[in-house]
Amino acid sequence: MTTPPALIETMRLEHGRIALWPGHRARLLASAAALGYPLDLAELDARVSAGIRAASLDAPDSRPPTGPGAAWRLRLLLAADGQISLAAAPLPETPVPVRLAIAAEVLGDASADATAEPCPPPSPEPRFPDDFWRRHKTTRRPWFDAAQHWLQAHTDYFDLVFGDASALLCEGSRCNLYVRDPQGRWLTPTANGGLLPGVQRQWLLDQGLVSEADLSLADLRAAPALRVSNALRGWLDARLDQETRHWVETQAGDMHSFTPRA
To answer: Could you name the CATH architecture of 7-91?
Structure first.
């Protein structure tokens, strides 16, 4: 019998605290409710507090507060039966700007590029379609399997950028995306169509630092500046390598151009 996918929160611990913990906690609670997974909030908070204390004990006071090893990666898993597990590891610094390439695969399209590396069949979950699973951070991510294989073989790249069958920009396999428009605004693809609601992305939206927009591949290529984000690495400057992989473009490729959402 196939084990149901677990929910994941990958968090940055720095200076003894998880700055985005309220967002992680809220997303985990919402996804657990959507999937019907039991979640004991008291146990969750206690396990995370214990994880923070354990990581802090492994960090000598003499360690520079902004030097290598100052930040930790905490990976929390919530199983379908409500069991919580937590693992910690030192987090290396990320050189910026990070390097991006465009994925050959198209999210949500069964006819994605035939040259892509084959993905293993997804775990059977008849209750929910793939666009549902893409809105929740779980161990079930077959649409990104080929991307992860490619990134493991091309370690100088931070991520692959994905679009959908309508030629709209979606997200990376590890991050959310941002383009700066000619007016200097930072825009991120809308959450329509199964975009993972990143915790760092939501914080940026709440702070008014970015706005949602319908964005095309042409917008991505023409943008004067690019950034990516995830809760582990933060909000990072990025650059696009346009020659490595090619997103399948359609006739709708240039229909949407910098259309911010209120």
So the answer is: 2-Layer Sandwich (3.30)
Please list the alpha-helical segments (H only) found in 58-177: 130-133, 145-153
Kindly report, as residue ranges, where domains of CATH 3.30.470.10 are found in the chain: 7-91
Residues of the chain with CATH 3.20.10.10: 98-260
* 131 Cβ neighbours under 8 A, 6+ residues apart: 108, 193, 194
Peptide bond into 5 cis (omega under 30): no
Q: Residue 10 pairs with which residues in a beta bridge? A: 75
C-alpha distances out from residue 259 to 32, 33, 166, Å: 33, 33, 15
Total residues found in the chain within this entry: 262
Q: Average pLDDT over the chain, rounded to whole? A: 82
Please answer whether residues 118 and 162 qualify as being in contact, where contact means their C-beta atoms are separated by less than 8 angstroms. Answer: no
Q: Is the pLDDT of residue 109 over 90?
A: no
Q: Which of 146, 153, 138 is nearest to 107 (CA)?
A: 146
For 74-81, what is the mean pLDDT?
97
CB of 187 within 8 A of CB of 178?
yes
Please state which architecture CATH assigns to domain 98-260: Alpha-Beta Barrel (3.20)
pLDDT at 127: 57
Locate tokens 């200076």: which residue?
15
Sheet of 159-164: strand order equals: 169-172, 159-164, 98-107, 234-241, 225-230, 176-180, 186-189, 211-214, 259-260
Look-up: residue for tokens 């004990």?
57
Q: In this predicted structure, what is the pLDDT of residue 59?
A: 52
